[in-house]
Amino acid sequence: MTGFLFELSFWLAAPVWLLMIFAPGWSATARIAGSPLTVVPVLLVYLALAIPVFPELWTAVSRPDLDAFRELTALADGAGAVWVQVIAWDLLIGQWMYREARRLGISALLMGPLLAFTILLSPFGLLLFLGLRAWSSRRATRDGFAVAVSGGPRN
After folding, report:
1. Are 119 and 90 in contact, with CB atoms under 8 Å apart?
2. Are 129 and 97 a contacting pair, CB within 8 Å?
């Protein structure tokens, strides 16, 4: 059962990722990616894995200790729960990145590969996006200032 739940968590998140990567301009994608409820099915899988190992989970999070974390992840349900938590948070991070990129006008051709990278290595993907976001915001502020000063758009 643990293996099934482990795999199910990915398949519950995958449709949202696929929409953000392959159909970023579709209005339904914006609505779906704008909802935090997309993560609820994944969190239900998390509960199914976390509840049986709750004492070990509680020990690992209430008194952070590497050995306690090792003991938790040595249990199939413990490792599965940690993985499903990662899937859930990665999805929320990806949704935020998608919305921010749309707000800032960052190209979907750039964001698609970045979102795919974020599925695999979310901390690296998030750091890259934060740099891209800062650069885009700085550029937008500079261009906006130029428009305000000149009274029209820059050519």
Report:
1. yes
2. yes
Length of the chain: 155
Query: For 95-116, how does the pLDDT look when each residue is reduced to its tens digit (9 = 90+)?
Result: 999 999 999 999 999 999 999 9
Between CA 127 and CA 140 the distance in angstroms is 20
Count of CA atoms in the C-beta half-sphere (13 A) of 28: 7
Angle of the 76-104 helix axis to the 66-74 helix axis, nearest 10: 100
Could you tell me the pTM of the whole model? 0.87
**Termini Cα distance of the chain:** 61
Nearest to 30 by CA among 99, 127, 115: 99
Question: Looking up tokens 């339904």, which residue turns up?
Answer: 28
